[in-house]
Amino acid sequence: MDWNHYRFRSLWPLPVPAAEVYRALERIEDYPRWWPQVREVTRLDDTSGVLRFRSFLPYELTATVREGRRDPAAGVLEVLMNGDMEGWARWTVAPRGSGTLVRYDQEVVVRKALLRRLAVPGRPVFRANHRVMMRAGRRGLAAHLSGGRQAV
Fold first, then answer.
1. What percentage of the chain reaches a pLDDT higher than 90?
2. Which CATH architecture has domain 5-145?
3. Any idea where the domains of the chain sit in the sequence?
4. Label partner for 127 (CA 20 to 30 A): which of 2, 88, 117, 145?
C-alpha cells in the first residue's frame, strides 16, 4: 500500500437547483468567500490557477490546478492537480428532487515532504482533516447559495 495515495468521496445534498450549484462550483476564484479552508486562489489564466488550503492541522497545501473537463450538460467539473498533491479532483452535480446532489471525488498522491514523513502514523488524522474541510465546504456553499442564510 502506498500510504501517500488517497481517494476521497463526499456527497453534498443541497436544496438548490443543479444549474445554480454548477455555476458556483465553476467559479473557483470565489471558493475562499464560502469555503474557509480554501485560503487563496490565484488565477493563472482561464483554465488554471494556484490554490492554497489549510484545515485544522498546522500545515498548508498548495496545488496548481488546470481544467481537465468542463461539461455543464453532464454536470462535471474536473481539474488536474500538481504541487503538494498530484492527481485529480472532480465535481459531479446532478438534480435530486427539488434540489441537487453534489458528488466530489478526488484521487491524489501527497508530495509535501512533511506529510510523506508522517504518512503512516498521520493517515487517520489527515483523513479526518479532509472530512472536516469537506463538511465546512458543504455548509459554506449552502449558505453562499442561500444568500447567507443559515446553512443546512
1. 95
2. 2-Layer Sandwich (3.30)
3. 5-145
4. 145
Set of cell numbers at residue 150: 443559515
* DSSP for 12-25, written as a single string: EEESS-HHHHHHHH
Reference 57, options 71, 37, 83, 28; nearest CA is 37
Q: Are 82 and 76 in contact (CB under 8 A)?
A: no
Report residue 134 as a C-alpha cell.
469537506
Please tell me the predicted confidence (pLDDT) of residue 150: 47
Is the four-CA dihedral 92, 24, 83, 2 of positive or negative sign? negative
46-75 mean pLDDT = 96
Instruction: For the chain, give percent helix, strand, coil, nearest 5.
Output: 30, 45, 25
